[in-house]
């Protein structure tokens, strides 16, 4: 009987559980034995692997986080460490592995694929920074969490006539900041993919204030600078009283939205389908609402790009 394994790795994201469930259920549906690796690559090295049954993934589709736990395992870049991981899978007769995680996790999967294990990547990260897919699992949930927070902040910003600076996650990517900024009606969005002139931002705030604008929301992606740094920079040009809000890890938690659950279900099942058809060394994704696969090489070929049209629109709508 064919045996495959599944793990979650890197930063957790809402919907990872739904993806694990899809891998396990699709596998069993196709007559495959599915094993869960606990604590990502760390668990693979430590032999923390358990056969999963249908019931093991029951009652998790609606839960945030990951039942398989996630971990960072920096030593996985060492070939001898990965050799141990490969041995742990092979001694059980497992020849395929689904890796649910971000681009760092994909690099580990790419190495394993070269070293004897057939691997398939599933994009699980709130950052939406992976090539070969329009959306990553967890992005929609995190986006909605941020929007909810920004709406609340806007209430108090209006009452106290203040400028709020909201720092959001995204590592080196600005998708969360851009989408949340557009959806939350932010006056200014600072993203790493585009250089922002703080003097210009300050001038815009000043012009708004002169026009009678009472409050302002600035969304800054963590990849640009912290909210506190942003406040310091702004005060070099205008005398304003700002409040800073760092949303932090709350952005990674919470129950996944319907979109994330459906995306995770589709991508998890598709990863299994591809492995059963002897496709390996690829990542699954969704592009224009169609399931796609992209080789790891191509995923890493270019750096992530922002939706330029949406960024332009955000500026047009925040005049
Ligand atoms: P996120 O961006 O959401 O945090 P990620 O998957 O990019 O997710 P990383 O911490 O970058 O998170 O990577 C997760 C794990 O993948 C690392 O802890 C390490 O075990 C493995 N990994 C990362 N880069 C490599 C590499 N070059 N070679 C082998 N393994 C790697």
TrEMBL record:
Keyword Transferase: yes
InterPro entries from the UniProt entry: ATP_PFK, ATP_PFK_prok-type, PFKA_ATP_prok, Phosphofructokinase_CS, Phosphofructokinase_dom, PKF_sf
Sequence positions that bind Mg(2+): 103
Pathway where it operates: Carbohydrate degradation; glycolysis; D-glyceraldehyde 3-phosphate and glycerone phosphate from D-glucose: step 3/4
Chain sites annotated for binding substrate: 125-127, 162, 169-171, 222, 243, 249-252
Listed cofactors: Mg(2+)
Coiled-coil regions, chain positions: none
Molecular-function GO terms, alphabetical: 6-phosphofructokinase activity; AMP binding; ATP binding; fructose-6-phosphate binding; identical protein binding; metal ion binding; monosaccharide binding
Residue intervals passing through the bilayer: none
Gene Ontology terms describing biological process: canonical glycolysis; fructose 1,6-bisphosphate metabolic process; fructose 6-phosphate metabolic process
Lineage: superkingdom: Bacteria
The reaction(s) this protein catalyses: beta-D-fructose 6-phosphate + ATP = beta-D-fructose 1,6-bisphosphate + ADP + H(+)
Activity regulation behaviour: Allosterically activated by ADP and other diphosphonucleosides, and allosterically inhibited by phosphoenolpyruvate.
Active site: 127
Entry's localization field: Cytoplasm
Principal location: cytoplasm
Subunit structure: Homotetramer.
Family: Belongs to the phosphofructokinase type A (PFKA) family. ATP-dependent PFK group I subfamily. Prokaryotic clade 'B1' sub-subfamily.
Role, per record: Catalyzes the phosphorylation of D-fructose 6-phosphate to fructose 1,6-bisphosphate by ATP, the first committing step of glycolysis.
HAMAP family, sorted: Phosphofructokinase_I_B1
Record-given protein name: ATP-dependent 6-phosphofructokinase
Gene label: pfkA
């Amino acid at each position: 009987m064919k045996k495959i394994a599944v793990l979650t790795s890197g930063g957790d994201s809402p919907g990872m559980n739904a993806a694990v469930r899809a891998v396990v259920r699709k596998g069993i549906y196709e007559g495959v034995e599915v094993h869960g690796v606990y604590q990502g690559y760390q668990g693979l090295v430590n032999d923390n692997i358990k056969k999963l049954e249908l019931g093991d993934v029951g009652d998790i589709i609606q839960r945030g986080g990951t039942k398989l736990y996630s971990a960072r395992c920096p030593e996985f870049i060492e070939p001898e460490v990965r050799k141990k991981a490969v041995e742990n899978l092979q001694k059980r007769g497992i020849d395929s592995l689904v890796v649910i995680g971000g681009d760092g996790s994909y690099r580990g999967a790419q190495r394993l694929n070269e070293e004897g294990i057939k691997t398939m990547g599933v994009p699980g990260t709130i950052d939406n920074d992976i090539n070969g897919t329009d959306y990553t699992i967890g992005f929609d949930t995190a986006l909605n969490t941020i929007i909810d927070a920004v709406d609340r902040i806007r209430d108090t910003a209006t009452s106290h006539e203040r400028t709020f600076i909201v720092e959001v996650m995204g590592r080196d990517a600005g998708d969360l900041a851009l989408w949340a900024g557009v959806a939350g009606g932010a006056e200014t969005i600072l993203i790493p993919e585009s250089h922002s002139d703080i003097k210009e931002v300050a001038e815009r705030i000043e012009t708004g204030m002169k026009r009678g604008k009472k409050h302002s929301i600035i969304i800054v992606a963590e990849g640009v600078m912290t909210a506190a740094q942003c406040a310091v920079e702004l005060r070099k040009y205008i005398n304003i009283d700002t409040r800073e809000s760092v949303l932090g890890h709350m952005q990674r938690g919470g129950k996944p939205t319907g979109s994330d659950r459906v995306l995770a279900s589709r991508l998890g099942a598709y990863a299994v389908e591809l492995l059963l058809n002897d496709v390996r060394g690829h990542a699954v994704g969704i592009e224009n609402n169609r399931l796609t696969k992209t080789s790891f090489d191509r995923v890493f070929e270019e750096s992530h790009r922002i939706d330029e049209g949406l960024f332009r629109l955000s500026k047009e709508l925040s005049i």
